[in-house]
Specification:
Keywords: Cobalamin biosynthesis, Methyltransferase, S-adenosyl-L-methionine, Transferase
Number of helices: 7
Radius of gyration: 21 Å
CATH architecture of the largest domain: 2-Layer Sandwich
Distance between the termini: 58 Å
Largest sheet: 5 strands, parallel
Strand content: 15-25%
Protein name: Precorrin-4 C(11)-methyltransferase
Number of strands: 10
Oligomer: single chain
Strand order of the largest sheet: 3-2-4-1-5
Enzyme class: transferase
Structural class: alpha/beta
Organism: Fervidobacterium nodosum
Order of helices and strands: EHEEHEHEHEHEHEEHE
Family: Belongs to the precorrin methyltransferase family.
Length: 250
């Protein structure tokens, strides 16, 4: 059996219990060494085979799985949650072709690890009820109707992955989409790692702040009014708001 495992944003203690149990019993560990905290590998068996996939092609990864899957448990480790920019589907398709069984174990995305460090909520009532998760097109294209400038017109809470090295273009697209230059923008580098960095700015100055910090990868860009202190309260805990668990007394 092959297990695709989301191992969280970095902090080893953010592994799920299920992920930890599978890592502990796995005979083979395949991991992206460029993204995963090496401390997580300490949970593996002492005799487990470990392979760094950061320099491997898809074909080489699948070949590695094929060569080691007979009567063995394989843990294929992905950073964060593999469903977000994890290139997991193509691996599953290849395993389907070979009738190799697999299971997906979700993990804590760096998205949620980062916002927890900011102590913010993506969906504060009456301010934003939508979160847009996206990236800027680079060597990997994005659909034309998902260009950053188009998504920016919604003014929803926004998390931009894989784009920190193009921060000037990110700013250009956000302004083109109609954002005000004073809109808050926060950058979280290596969320929950020991060397985590948080940069707080606005659209007008975030590019220069990022360049000064020399951050060029492994960071998420957050955009939106949800980043600023907000005084509104939800209806959920309002004593005058009744629902099936808090009924109005007659």
């Amino acid at each position: 059996m092959v297990y695709f495992i989301g191992v969280g944003p970095g902090d080893p203690e953010l592994l799920t219990i299920k992920a930890l149990k599978i890592i502990q019993i796995s005979d083979v560990i395949i991991y992206a060494g460029s993204l995963i905290n090496p401390e997580i590998l300490c949970y593996a068996k002492s005799d487990a085979l470990k392979f760094d996939s950061s320099k491997l092609s898809l074909e080489e990864i699948i070949q590695l799985i094929e060569e080691n899957c007979e009567n063995k448990t394989i843990a294929r480790l992905h950073s964060g949650d593999p469903s977000l920019y994890g290139a997991i589907y193509e691996q599953m398709q290849e395993l389907d072709k070979r009738n190799i069984p697999y299971e997906v174990i979700p993990g804590v995305s760096s998205l949620f690890g980062a916002v927890s460090r900011l102590k913010r909520e993506f969906t504060p009532p009456e301010l934003s009820q939508t979160l847009i998760i996206t990236r800027l097109e680079g060597r990997t294209a994005v659909p034309q109707n998902e260009r950053l400038s188009s998504l920016a017109t919604h003014k929803a809470s926004m998390a931009i992955f894989l784009s920190i090295h193009m921060i000037d273009r990110v700013v250009e697209e956000l302004l083109k989409g109609g954002y005000d230059k004073d809109t808050p923008v926060y950058v979280v580098y290596k969320a929950t790692w020991k060397d985590e960095k948080i940069i707080k700015g606005k659209i007008e100055n975030i590019a220069s702040l990022v360049k000064d910090s020399e951050i060029k990868n492994t960071a998420i860009i957050f955009v939106g009014d949800f980043l600023e202190p907000y005084g509104g309260y939800s209806k959920l805990y309002d004593p005058t708001f009744y629902h099936s668990f808090r009924k109005k007394e007659n």
